[in-house]
């Protein structure tokens, strides 16, 4: 288990993760248990299991495969059902659970993208805190030049994490600012440069064009930059997250994901559907607003939490 927070006064990471996925685990647990505990599974009840998995946002293909596997078993108790469900979810998630920063490039440039309200800027701050705690030097670039509040918010995170922030005035050219930030990070020998961007709606062509420009301009400084394009997804948007991945993948060359707001109101199953369809690395998940509520993605923990298993 991920022991990023120890037992004691504060909730452990496992407690927060299971709390964040309780909507998914609760609905799945009640439905599937009722179906499988009534004796041998008929074809009709296997279809009902599949429908329950689809309602939990796991996706049609994943739901069909899982329902078929579960239909082949004979279960004596609820725990046996949960073990099978967790194992099936983990099969999908294990290949995509990967660290964000490998060894190599310095500065390692992370371009953070996503729609308004997904939690981008807060995620950047939490990443900066984590990297600083690991002993890495970090620089932040306030590339969301559309909103003065976003610039101010990033500056606050910079102060909290002791990371310098490259920022301009609202309305300034974001690509130019990213260019300056990368040059500064190289000159200062910074380990990690994290670049914020404006929250783009995936149907706004001109904003997507600017995002492409940021990538193009950064490559003039370092042909391999950005080394990671991290898409921050809000778990509460459900199926709409799939279309966000599709568009940002095509426009910005997304290389990995962070999913936020797994706070108990979301159906976390959408992460399983995304993993199955796109096979993009999942680097981090967030279960709340606290500094410790963002942690590296662990497939086993997530699968067990979705299935409603005990620690």
Q: How does this model look, in words?
A:
The structure is a single chain. The protein has 311 residues and is α/β, with parallel strands linked by helices. It is built from 12 helices and 8 strands. Strands 3-2-4-1-5-6-7-8 form an 8-stranded mixed β-sheet, with helices on both faces. Mean pLDDT is 88; it is low at 1-9.
Write the layout of secondary structure elements.
Layout: H1 13-20, H2 22-36, H3 43-55, H4 60-71, H5 78-93, E1 108-113, H6 120-133, E2 138-141, H7 148-161, E3 165-166, H8 174-188, E4 192-195, H9 205-221, E5 228-234, H10 240-252, E6 256-260, H11 270-278, E7 282-286, E8 294-296, H12 299-306
Parallel strand pairs: 1-4, 1-5, 2-3, 2-4, 5-6, 6-7
Antiparallel strand pairs: 7-8
Helix pairs in contact: 2-3, 3-4, 4-5, 5-12, 6-7, 8-9, 10-11
What are the salient characteristics of this protein?
single chain; 311 residues; alpha/beta; 8-stranded mixed sheet; 8 strands; disordered N terminus
Shape label? elongated
Beta-strand content = 5-15%
Largest sheet: 8 strands, mixed
What Rg is obtained from the alpha carbons, in whole angstroms?
Answer: 21 Å
Summing up helix and strand content along with how strands pair, one would put the structural category as: alpha/beta
Return the average pLDDT rounded to an integer.
88
- Report the end-to-end length measured between terminal Cα atoms: 8 Å
Question: Could you give the count of β-strands?
Answer: 8
Output the number of helix runs.
12
Low-confidence stretches: 1-9
Q: What sequence of helices (H) and strands (E) makes up the elements?
A: HHHHHEHEHEHEHEHEHEEH
Give the strand order of the largest sheet, numbering strands 1, 2, ... along the chain.
3-2-4-1-5-6-7-8
Helix amount: 40-55%
């Amino acid at each position: 288990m991920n022991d990023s927070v120890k037992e004691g006064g504060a909730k452990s990471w496992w407690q927060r993760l299971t709390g964040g996925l309780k909507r998914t685990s609760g609905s799945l647990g009640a439905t599937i248990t009722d179906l499988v505990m009534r004796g041998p599974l008929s074809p009709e009840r296997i279809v009902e299991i599949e429908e329950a998995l689809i309602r939990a946002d796991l996706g049609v293909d994943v739901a069909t495969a899982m329902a078929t596997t579960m239909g082949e078993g004979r279960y004596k108790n609820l725990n046996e059902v949960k073990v099978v469900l967790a194992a099936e979810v983990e099969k999908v998630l294990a290949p995509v659970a990967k660290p964000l920063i490998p060894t190599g490039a310095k500065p390692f440039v992370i371009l953070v993208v996503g729609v308004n309200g997904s939690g981008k800027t807060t995620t950047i701050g939490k990443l900066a805190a984590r990297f600083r705690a690991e002993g890495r030097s970090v620089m932040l670039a306030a590339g969301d030049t559309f909103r003065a509040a976003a610039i101010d918010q990033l500056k606050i995170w910079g102060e909290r994490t002791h990371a310098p922030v490259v920022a301009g005035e609202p309305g300034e050219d974001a690509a130019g600012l990213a260019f300056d930030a990368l040059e500064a990070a190289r000159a200062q020998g910074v380990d990690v440069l994290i670049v914020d961007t404006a929250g783009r709606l995936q149907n706004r062509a001109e904003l997507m064009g600017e995002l492409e420009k940021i990538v193009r301009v950064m490559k003039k400084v370092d042909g391999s930059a950005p080394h990671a394009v991290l898409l921050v997804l809000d778990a509460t948007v459900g199926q709409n997250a799939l279309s966000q991945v599709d568009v940002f993948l095509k426009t910005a060359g997304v290389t990995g994901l962070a999913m936020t707001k797994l706070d108990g109101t979301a159906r976390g199953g959408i992460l399983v559907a995304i993993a199955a369809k796109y096979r993009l690395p999942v680097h981090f998940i967030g279960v709340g607003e606290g500094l410790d509520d963002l942690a590296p993605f662990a497939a086993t923990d997530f699968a067990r939490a979705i299935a409603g298993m005990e620690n």
